[in-house]
Write a structure and sequence with these properties.
The protein is built from eleven helices and 15 strands. This is Solute-binding protein family 3/N-terminal domain-containing protein. InterPro entries: PhnD.
């Protein structure tokens, strides 16, 4: 079922069978919530991961969940501000935007934690951004990409737009990205940027190593397929967010307990194993303060150029 509202596509709805348990939950007329996720990878991959998580959360928190997805960062924020979306998975930069636009009402519920992998030697509630090129392209330094085609992700992306613009002005002589690279375009997702590199549609790309990790694990690409010209400082990972003014404190607690309790039961551990997440941890707004400082630096640099 696909229904478009605020540019969001409905994947799973209350009463739409995810498994034998979900249909029964819908029949009990339990409270309904709408959860939205920004799509940074293939729809089928995203749906497969979230299907088991939604089923678990519906049962554990005793609530029916409608699950929407979109490629537009702005659409999710708009939907939360309007009250159409109750819970959303937001990247760091777009979370800060949502928090500010809601006058502090939209806050983190929990943060993801990813397992140790080829880019992080320990489990971390963080991820890394990177500037990558294709192995064998001859572009092994930042200077070698000057004047070439650069792929970004989306204006609302942290690792795929905000960090490069904030941190790279100094590295490229105080210039805008568009002045250093010959052409700059937004691919729409981190996976699309990685594919653009491999297909020769982009020479370099700023993207999330967290998403690239999943692409590599899927077998579609290898770590060795890329040159890593720059790796960012650690970035706070995406958070599941709610509007504390709209959602009852009791529901906030039920949802937080459902997420953070996954490591404590066999069913929850199975969800984590199926989705590739290590765990969910309770999160607070203050974890984004370092990123706020980076974004403030970006704004100051932009102001100086005017």
């Amino acid at each position: 079922m696909r229904k478009q509202i605020f540019g969001l596509a409905l994947l799973f709805g209350a009463g739409i069978a995810l498994g034998t348990g979900t249909a029964a939950l819908a029949a009990e007329k339990k409270e309904e919530l709408t959860l939205a996720v920004i799509r940074t990878e293939e729809m089928s991959t995203l749906a497969k991961r979230w299907e088991v998580a939604i089923d678990y959360l519906s049962k554990t928190a005793n609530v029916n969940i409608n699950f929407y997805t979109t490629t537009s960062y702005a659409s999710v924020v708009e939907a939360m501000l309007s009250g159409f979306v109750d819970v959303a998975s937001l990247g760091p930069k777009i979370y800060i935007v949502a928090h500010e636009k809601s006058d502090g009402a939209i806050v983190p519920l929990v943060s993801y934690t990813i397992p140790a992998d080829m880019f992080n030697d320990k489990p971390c509630g963080c991820y890394l951004g990177a500037l990558v090129t294709k192995t064998g392209s001859g572009m092994k330094t930042l200077e070698s990409t000057k004047g070439k085609v650069l792929a970004l992700v989306d204006p609302g992306s942290t690792s795929g737009n905000a960090l490069p613009r904030a941190l790279f002005a100094e590295k490229i002589g105080g210039k805008e990205l568009e002045s250093y690279w010959g052409r700059v375009f937004y691919s729409g997702s981190h996976t699309a940027s990685a594919r653009a590199i491999q297909a020769g549609k982009a020479d370099a790309a700023f993207l999330s190593l967290g998403t690239l990790r999943r692409v590599i694990i899927s077998g579609e690409m290898k770590k060795e397929d890329f040159n890593y010209l720059w790796i960012s400082p650690q970035i706070p990972i995406d958070v599941i967010s709610v509007d504390k003014k709209r959602m009852k404190p009791e529901m906030v607690k039920r949802l937080r307990d459902a997420f953070t309790g996954m490591t404590k039961t066999k069913e929850g551990q199975a969800v984590l194993a199926a989705t590739g997440w290590a765990e969910f941890q309770a999160a607070e707004d203050a974890r984004f303060d370092p990123l706020r400082k980076i974004l403030e630096l970006k704004a100051k640099l932009k102001k100086k150029k005017k």
